[in-house]
Design brief:
The complex is a heterotrimer of chains A (313), B (294) and C (346). With 313 residues, chain A is mainly α. Chain A is built from twelve helices and no strands. The longest helix of chain A is centred in the C-terminal third of the chain and has 39 residues. Chain B contains eleven helices and no strands. In chain B, helix 10 packs antiparallel against helix 11. Chain C is of the alpha/beta class and 346 residues long. Chain C is built from 14 helices and twelve strands. Classes of the chains: A mainly alpha (313), B mainly alpha (294), C alpha/beta (346). Chains in contact: A-B, A-C, B-C. Chains A and B meet through helix 1, helix 6, helix 7, helix 10 and helix 11 of A and helix 5, helix 6, helix 9 and helix 11 of B.
């Protein structure tokens, strides 16, 4: 079992190296000369050349990559062109709303999707199944910003139940916190929820046709116990896998969601950086998001051991 | 206990040979619905100039922000442009980008996947690179690429294709790995069958069905990503009407003129829904385990 | 249908399980499959009843029908099933669940796939105790260990924490038996329990089952296609063909003097390796020509007629009823007298 864990841990390294290479290349290939920006309008070609030298911009690709990686390992993500602040600090300031949004969204999506999927699998072929899967396809097809505006229109403007935009930190109060995050979570989470529900249904359906389910029924177990106690654990691996992989969708959607709902998180930072062509920030954000994605999937892989005992051996 | 059955109890066999369209529709409602919707959108896109004869760029400041009416079916936007015309024309961008991305990514993915699956030497490197690319969320990857280039439809296609390629590579490679180990491949190799023949007769046919399904999902994802990019201002240049663009422009007027945002949004959702339904239906129809008579 | 007790002692005993003209049909897109088409049989306490037939003759479906485990598109359309006189088709699903695993248990053919791979065997056995006897987790666990010992699994305290994939095929089947017998059921339905096992293990498992039957007094319905298993374990046997019962008798009588061509065919197709057979020039494997009919095309007349060596004109037109042609020996054949006679003459 430990061999499996260690091997899995090691395999994340090449992935991060590739991500790092890609992100670094982005900076490397970016149009515009940072030296010229720093030198200012009145600088001469000589001044710019000197600054280039000082910044090490004339070094070969690999040397610069090595240096950049070294800085990265020390938590230095570069400096924003736009605001002159360290990227790491910018991200750190805005991480809380993004984490809060991600947490509520995941909670919403998973707690709804898994039971939905199980129910659909159990009642496969009936109208219940078709209804649930119909919902799922719809959720899968509405892009985040479309459902976001629809929800805002319905709940904020027409019904006036929830605020149109903004973010309230948890320490101010649970009510306002949830009120602000309710619509964004639903908008962002519906695609994620649809994906999880579908995979849950497929996986549980496959499991339900296995012999040991018949044995469980033959023992007189009630349906709920058969579904949750016997079927779910066997269906667990693909479900947990997709929860991990789906985080990628969440991350992508966070950028748009924060933009629509005016949440001052890392997503908003990204949007502003895109418009301003602030490469260091874009690069930093990509690194952080990718790192999180890789980490989450690593945890998912490690969790398999608890779900399916056969993986340990 | 007597069990006399005087009459014959003959049960008919149900073996139809002719094509049964009504039956097909009944058995595959998703494919049918998806195809119909998609066909409708396609027709709209192809015949856009006929359906909406006006110029999508025509400014008309006097008529700005008018709600939907007989004259302007979908209303007008902040510059007085007819939203209906723009929405109809916007369908072209989405469909062009969607289908190009699907085709190109499948093309590249197929080649890379075949090579990676068959040549162990290359496999390791290729898969690491693919894993790395997949670790970056689609839209961020596309944004990063777009940040390097000037905004144009071509560049959008490239930027949206790149994140999709690794998925196709994974799929193809998985198929190749499974097939490669089969005894009949070993048998074929042992009698000296050339690689080209193994490729065309064995490998490719097995990839077609999953690739078709993947192509539809890729198409849907591409449409969504392009719209997202345009919405954020990093996609299709603003002078070309795309649904994402229109929604970006309509944001600020959302509370007073919801139709600017609403109609392109609905069309977007319907298109993606259609492609997803088609993909689902195709997947069920092409799955050999669930194969029903078509 | 009350028959004299097969155990020989005087006075009629009440049957523990009665299957009365059971019909279980499957309503598929391609037509109705009459998997069980009018089967009746009776099981007495403490006896072992064998059910023989080829694959697809409906034996498993009959057993599943008893437990009401028939899922869509199947349905029990006619008949009754009575446990100690009480109709099982009339009780609610909740009551049925109390009967399953408790008063009637079932074990299946494939022990590998019939056990949940992600739960320990201990938990799977303990589950029945917790469910039906309301024991605590601790008490159920101890009982599970006891059951493992009962089925002669060595190092039971350690094994109880194992997962199914860590056990051999024979041990897994023992676990299944342990699970099934944990609540001391009155009836055990054993669906091909030894078919998937090695021959040597087969013998062990059968032996175990008989032993436990003696100890616990369980009545067993043993379903199999293997005549050898029937000969070793059952007192009475029922022969099924295409969803119907075609013959029933005590095992000795059935083997020595079958009264149905199908049974005769089955007996004859067992390969014989003794010198007598060699001398009698019986070197080719005997077979029953033809194939089991698709269960959707039920002809008039006897279902076995197309493959029958004794077929007469009447067989094509009229379905023979199941009748008692000798004491305790039932057969559904117009020509059964000829069949019995042919056996007597070797």
């Amino acid at each position: 079992m430990y061999v499996y864990l260690v091997r899995r841990l090691i395999s994340t390294l090449p992935v991060m190296v590739v991500v790092g290479l890609f992100v670094f290349s982005l900076l490397y290939l970016a149009p515009g000369d940072p030296a010229a920006l720093i030198a200012g309008d009145l600088a001469t070609a000589d001044d710019i050349a000197k600054i280039r030298d000082k910044l090490g911009l004339n070094e070969p690709f690999l040397a610069r990559f090595a240096e950049w990686s070294w800085d990265l390992a020390h938590g230095d993500l570069g400096v924003s062109i736009f605001s002159n602040l360290p990227v790491a600090r910018l991200i750190g300031q805005r991480i809380e709303p993004t984490l809060a949004l991600a947490a509520t969204t995941m909670l919403f999506a998973v707690t709804l999707a898994v039971p939905m999927g199980i129910l659909a699998a159990w009642k496969a072929g009936t109208w219940v199944d078709r209804l649930i899967m119909g919902f799922a396809v719809l959720g899968f097809s509405f892009p985040v910003f479309v459902s976001a505006y629809l929800l805002i229109y319905g709940f904020s403007i027409r019904l006036e139940w929830l605020p149109v935009e903004g973010y309230t930190p948890l320490r101010v109060g649970l009510g306002p916190f949830l009120a602000n995050l309710a619509l964004p979570s639903v908008a962002l989470g519906s695609i994620y929820m649809a994906l999880i529900a579908r995979i849950t249904r497929t996986s549980v359906l496959e499991v339900l046709s296995e012999d040991y389910i018949r044995t469980a029924h033959a023992k007189g177990l009630p349906a709920f116990r058969v579904l949750v106690g016997h079927a779910l654990k066997n269906a667990g691996v693909p479900i947990v896998t997709v929860i991990g992989l789906g985080i990628g969708l969440l991350i992508g959607g966070v950028v748009i969601t924060e933009s629509v709902f005016g949440i001052p998180g890392v997503g908003r930072l990204t949007v502003d950086a895109i418009l301003a062509r602030d490469y260091p920030v874009i690069q930093g954000v990509i690194l952080v998001f990718s790192g999180v994605y890789v980490l989450v999937n690593l945890l998912v892989d490690l969790s398999y051991v608890f779900i399916d005992p056969r993986i340990r051996y | 206990m007597t069990d006399a059955t005087p009459a014959a109890t003959e049960v008919d066999e149900h073996g139809s040979e002719s094509v049964d369209l009504a039956g097909f529709v009944r058995r595959n409602p998703t494919v049918t619905l998806g195809s119909i919707l998609l066909l409708a959108i396609l027709l709209v896109a192809v015949f856009a100039p006929l359906l909406a004869s006006g110029d999508p760029q025509a400014l008309n400041p006097i008529q700005r922000l008018r709600p939907p009416s007989a004259e302007h079916w979908f209303g007008t936007d902040m510059y007085g442009r007819d939203v209906f015309t723009r929405t109809i024309h916007g369908s072209r961008i989405s469909l062009v980008v969607g289908s190009l991305v699907a085709l190109i990514s499948v093309g590249f993915g197929l080649v890379i996947g075949l090579v990676a699956g068959y040549l162990r030497v290359v496999d390791g490197i290729v898969m690491r690179v693919m894993d790395g690319l997949m670790a970056i969320p689609d839209i961020l990857l596309a944004i990063a690429l777009m940040a390097l280039f000037r905004a144009s439809v071509t560049n959008v296609v490239i930027a949206v294709t790149v994140p999709q390629v690794p998925r196709v590579v994974r799929l193809v490679r998985a198929v190749v790995l499974t097939i490669r180990e089969r005894p009949y491949i070993e048998a074929a190799q042992s009698i000296g069958t050339r690689f080209r023949r193994i490729l065309t007769k064995h490998l490719l046919p097995n990839t077609i069905a999953p690739l078709i399904v993947q192509a539809t999902y890729t198409g849907a994802a591409a449409v969504l990503t392009e719209a997202g990019l345009s919405f954020l201002g990093a996609g299709t240049p603003p002078n070309i009407p795309s649904w994402g663009n229109m929604m970006a422009e309509g944001r600020t007027y959302f509370q007073v003129a919801v139709w600017i945002l609403l109609f392109p949004g609905m069309f977007l959702a319907i298109t993606v829904l259609a492609v997803n339904l088609l993909g689902d239906g195709l997947r069920d129809a092409l799955d050999p385990r669930l194969r029903r008579r078509l | 249908m009350i028959a004299p007790s097969p155990t020989g002692s005087g006075g009629p005993t009440r049957p523990i399980l009665e299957i009365d003209r059971l019909k279980t049909h499957f309503f598929t897109r391609d037509g109705v499959v009459r998997a069980v088409d009018g089967v009746s049989c009776v099981l007495y306490p403490g006896e072992t009843l064998g059910v023989v037939g080829e694959s697809g003759c409906g034996k498993s479906i009959t057993a599943l029908s008893v437990l009401r485990l028939i899922a869509r598109p199947g349905r029990i359309v006619e008949g009754d099933i009575r446990l100690a006189g009480r109709s099982l088709l009339a009780v609610s699903e909740a009551e049925m669940r109390m009967i399953r695993g408790n008063e009637i248990s079932m074990i299946f053919q494939e022990p590998m796939t019939s056990l949940n791979p992600v739960l320990t065997v201990g938990r799977q056995i303990a589950e029945t105790f917790i469910l039906h006897q309301d024991l605590s987790r601790r008490a159920a666990h101890d009982k599970a260990v006891e059951m493992l010992r009962l089925v002669r699994i060595p190092e039971a305290e350690r094994r109880v924490h194992d997962y199914p994939f860590q056990l051999s095929g024979g041990m897994r089947q023992r676990v299944m038996i342990a699970m099934a017998l944990s609540c001391n059921p009155k009836v055990l339905l054993a669906d091909e329990p030894t078919t998937a096992l090695d021959v040597t293990i087969q013998a062990q498992i059968l032996h175990l089952m008989l032993d436990l039957k003696e100890r616990l007094g369980t009545a067993i319905i043993l379903i199999t296609h293997d005549l050898g298993v029937i000969a070793e374990t059952a007192q009475r046997a029922v022969v099924m063909y295409a969803g119907r019962k075609v013959e029933e008798a005590s095992v000795e009588v059935l083997f020595e003097r079958p009264r149905h061509p199908y049974t005769l065919g089955l007996m004859k197709s067992v390969p014989r390796l003794d010198k007598a057979a060699y001398d009698a020039k019986r070197r080719r494997l005997a077979e029953i020509p033809g194939m089991v009919p698709a269960l959707k095309k039920i002809p008039a007349g006897c279902i076995f007629e197309p493959r029958c060596a004794f077929a007469a004109e009447r067989c094509r037109r009229e379905t023979p009823p199941l009748e008692e042609h000798a004491p305790g020996h039932w057969s559904a054949c117009w020509e059964q007298a000829r069949v019995a006679a042919s056996v007597a003459h070797g």
